[in-house]
Amino acid sequence: MKKMKLLALAAAALFAGSVAAAPQVGQPAPAFTVKDSTGQVHSLQDFAGKNVVLEWTNHDCPFVVKHYNGNMQQLQKTYTEQDVVWLSVISSKPGSQGHIDQAKSDELTTSRGAAPTAVIFDEDGVMGKAYDARTTPHMYVIDKAGILQYMGGIDSIPSAKVEDIANATPYLANATKAVIAGQTPDPAVTRPYGCSVKY
Amino acid sequence: MWVMRLITTLLCGMVLGVSPTVLAASSGWQPAKHLQAELVSEYQTVQPGQTLQLALHFIPDEYWHTYWINPGDSGLPTSIAWQLPTGVTAGDIQWPTPQAFSIPPMMNYGFAGPTLLLIDLTVPSSYSATTLDITAKVDWLVCEEICIPAEASLQLSLPVSSSAEPSVYGQSLVSQAKARQPQTLAITGFYDIAGDSFSAAIAGLPDDDFQQFFVSATELVDHAAPQHVLFSEGEWLLRQKLNTYFTHAPTDFSVVLVSANGQSYSVTLQAAAEAAVVSSPDASQQALWLVLLMAAAGGLILNLMPCVFPVLSLKALSIAGNTGQQQQQKRDALWYSLGVVLSFVALASVLLALRAAGTAVGWGFQLQSPILVAALAYLLFALGLSLSGLVQFGLGLMNAGGGLTQQKGAKGAFFTGVLAVIVASPCTAPFMGGALGYAVTQPPFLALLVFVALGLGMALPFLLLAFVPGLAKRLPKPGAWMDTLKQVLAYPLYLSAVWLAWVYGRQTGIDALALLLCGAVALAAACWLWGRWQLRREGKADAVFALLLVALALSVLWMATPKLAENSSSPEVTQTHWQSWSADKHAALLAAGKPVLVNMTADWCITCLVNERVALNTDSSKAALALFDVTYLKGDWTRRDAAITAYLHQYQRDGVPLYVLYWPGQPAEVLPQILTPDTLRQTLERLSKQ
Description:
The structure holds two protein chains of two kinds. Chain A is an alpha+beta fold. Chain A has helices spanning 2-17, 62-67, 71-80, 102-112, 126-130, 171-180, and strands at 33-36, 41-43, 52-56, 85-90, 118-121, 135-136, 138-142, 148-152, 195-196. Chain A has a single domain, classed as Glutaredoxin (3-Layer(aba) Sandwich). Chain A has a seven-stranded mixed sheet, with helices on one face. A two-stranded antiparallel ribbon of chain A has the order 6-9. In chain A, strand 1 (33-36) and strand 2 form a beta hairpin. Chain A is globular and about 40 Å long. Chain B is built from 20 helices and 25 strands. In chain B, helix 10 (409-441) runs antiparallel to helix 11 (444-467) and helix 13 (481-507) runs antiparallel to helix 14 (510-536). Helices cover 47% and strands 23% of the residues of chain B. Chain B folds into four domains: 2-179, Thiol:disulfide interchange protein DsbD, N-terminal domain (Immunoglobulin-like), CATH 2.60.40; 183-275, Immunoglobulin-like; 283-369 and 393-482, no CATH class; 579-689, Glutaredoxin. In chain B, the strands form six sheets. A seven-stranded mixed sheet of chain B has the order 16-19-20-14-15-18-17. In chain B, strands 1-2-4-10-7 form a five-stranded antiparallel sheet, with helices on one face. A five-stranded mixed sheet of chain B has the order 21-23-22-24-25, sandwiched between helices. The interface between A and B is large, with 42 and 37 residues. Chain B: Residues 1-24 form the signal peptide. Chain B: Residues 289-500 form the Cytochrome C biogenesis protein transmembrane domain. Chain B: Pfam families: DsbD_N (PF11412), DsbD_TM (PF02683), Thioredoxin_7 (PF13899).
């Protein structure tokens, strides 16, 4: 009987938990209204008609460091040049690893040669939780119609070693190429890997 | 501490002028940020042919942890790349029972405090070197809130001799490691994935109070979601929400169950659907040729079924009677095949037309009508009586179908084929469930193709007999034996009639069955009268009386069946709190304005099983159903019933479970795929108040 009660409680929690619907590929991407490092406000609908890449980041996370050894910057340049909006999102709460201010953000962009469209400060984690972003890096591709087309890892080898990038299947690059060409990425969902997002 | 040890080791090494690891069962502590690591051997001297265990020993700083094979929402499992002498092999990491680290909204699985990972090392018996040099390149991620990846190269150099020598330190670590591992049980549990949940059922676990589980597959369960662990009817049932990043079900993996007192066991899980014999979820993806081949094989097997065999015996007799007329035989065989194939096509067309008309029917619908079953029982009984010699005009029968089959030549052969199919229909449903299930879900053309294959398979033995002269010649010459054979063949027909009578009895009840048997007696009397008339060719009264008796036999069925069928459904209700679903019963209840709960389930659906035990078969749900006067209809989709498939499609579902609650005057309410003990009662209370 006690077990039954526990179960009922657990089940109730399950249903309460699932009210915040998880993001799903093929469905409209979760809406967001967030400020970037310069204080400018961005909403998903502002980017209607453009393909959007979301990158969860934390500059001190070793998995992010791995990809900022050139790979991430290259991806940002390649796709922003093709009119893709690239948002680097920081969901680290104040005081936690990866939480930065405007000055630090500008400094990082310059020193690393990064080329995102904007760096988003999501310090209350609302956008991160809406996308169920778990790791840094964690990547999403949204098409021109606002449909989520890809979510998951940046590539196929979960490690913190730079030398693995060359041998990995570049999931994000493949997905972005497919979305630019108007196709459905395959795979559209992969395992995200990295440090936990510091909500 | 480790610094001291390191310095000591280094000093010793320098004094001896050899590598610091020589003659030690440990690689020595390797310092890294927030964690120190060593590799330890169970034996300080090893012998060829030995399998020994190595322990990878981590001591992370307080509050820091490394990860399990499934790290959870972030993190990385520890991995080892080995450099070993030729022939020496290392096994997979044997993990301790993991701990859960909750960092809302995320969950990780790993190890805090001193951690021991075990690895089996096998030295071949041909190993001839004097030392065994082992290098383990270990990769780990150690995290508190932040994470630090690191790698280390841990080396061991163990002397090899003819007798192995245990290391006290190594053995104590290995025994500690084993004590912290889950006990691996040689049992297999089953899991399935339905809607947005993962469910598993495991029987045969030790008697214990299990509270928590860890699934070794990544991106399968939502690690942070609540876990449901309950014991019911000898099985432990597990359930957790599916991971957002779930893409495909792993083939098999393990689950570690942890009990209240800290005991842990590891069990392999296998997909439940794969274990289901009758229906595989991949059926629709099977290649067409394979399905056609299966259908043909199924058709061939039908020849051996008790409900077909007697008709074939008739045909075998007629072929035996025609020996020497090869042309005739070939023609007959072709006509027979045509009869079989066209009948299957006709049946399929009816089925497809009905399906198109939106009428939910399953294959075997001919047999769902008790009147048809009874008529078939009569037909077979009468055929048997004629074989027994009661009716005296050869094998001829007054029955149109039977009469046609007995005509010589093309027409007779064709109708024998038709009769074979009609009589075969009771057998097709159970034996051809898979192929038929496939057929009814396919476009009409493909479905017809499947039925053609079925027919060809069934006709094959006769085609072979006619077209392979060797076979036909082996048939015995006509003679007196034929009369004996004919009389012997009456008995399979009687048995078939008994079987059909039993089916009829199941469908209706003992009273209706008694009426059917009375009808059979009337039929026997009719046959006897008719036979007498046939012999004497006079006394019209006999013939007329015979026809009247046949009419009586049939009318008995018309009168008895519907009423009795209705009555017989009541005892079912008292035995269980549900009735089996049929479209007709469902429609009748709705028309009568009654509340109805429909549960579509299947034996291989563990989610269904869990729901029934947790939420539907409980006393409170039974009470709620009784209180609100709800009729509970249960449909069994174990064999992919077409009517149920159509019903599922109505609710945009292509699988079970599906629960729909109908409350008079309100739109049908689809209940969640995951039921809780209160779902049904609460929904009923809400609907009744609206």
